[in-house]
Design brief:
Blueprint (H helix, E strand, L loop, with lengths): L1 H56 L8 H8 L6 E9 L12 E9 L5 E11 L5 E2 L7 E2 L7 E5 L9 E8 L6 E11 L4 E3 L3 H6 L11
Antiparallel strand pairs: 1-2, 2-7, 3-4, 3-6, 3-8, 5-6, 8-9
Length: about 210
């Protein structure tokens, strides 16, 4: 009888040792798995931060030539000019495809005749001077030139010596600034005037696009 009890005790002790070893092994495996998962998450996080950092540092392919455009605009002798540019956020209520903000342009008429029609060339740029369209939808581009857009006003009459404000519906998040020029205008007598510097303005929008050979 005593021999049987001793034998059973030995078996229980052996079983206890086996269970203890299995528990230790499972604990080590679980710890290793958690460590691997944490390392994986850390790697993914680091990669994401690196990509975000690279995106922030990436320079735009097409940059605006702000100095060149300002120099050309300083020579603008047109009697009808854009004298002020303002952005009004959330200016349009309801569903809209264009952004819901407004770009308000003040157009001044220093001629002796009323102006009944005028065409504006306009282009936007972001915080890194990268070129962008002011209104991505429902607008007219100039030929095959990217970014530059043309807007024609036929509903606003600007009296001689006066100014009028026109509004374009835009997404103000797409740009931090705009450059614009009156390309042509028509008076109440039916005469149309083309701005002689408009073509140079268009050709000088993109930085490094043109090279002076002479």
């Amino acid at each position: 009888m005593k021999k049987q009890i001793t034998k059973k005790a030995g078996m229980l002790l052996t079983l206890l040792l086996v269970l203890t070893m299995l528990f230790v092994l499972c604990s080590c495996g679980s710890s290793k798995k958690v460590t691997n998962e944490n390392n994986t998450e850390k790697t993914i996080s680091e990669a994401s931060e690196q990509e975000t950092s690279e995106d922030k540092d990436e320079e735009p392919v097409d940059k605006i030539d702000l100095d060149g455009l300002s120099e050309i605009e300083s020579k603008d002798k047109s009697k009808v000019k854009i004298t002020k540019k303002e952005v009004q956020e959330d200016a349009v209520s309801g569903f809209t495809m264009r952004g819901g903000d407004a770009l308000n342009l003040t157009v001044s008429n220093d001629s002796n005749s009323d102006v009944t029609e005028f065409t504006i060339y306009i282009v936007g740029y972001d915080e890194k001077d990268g070129l962008t369209e002011v209104q991505p939808s429902m607008s007219v581009s100039i030929g095959n030139l990217p970014y530059i857009q043309s807007f024609k006003s036929t509903e606003t009459t600007i009296k001689a010596g006066k100014s009028e404000k026109i509004g374009l519906e835009v997404d103000a998040d797409k740009f931090v600034g705009v450059k614009a020029i009156v390309a042509s205008y028509t008076t109440s007598s039916g005469e149309t005037y083309e701005n002689p510097i408009a073509e140079d303005w268009v050709n000088s929008v993109q930085l490094g696009k043109n090279r002076v050979l002479d």
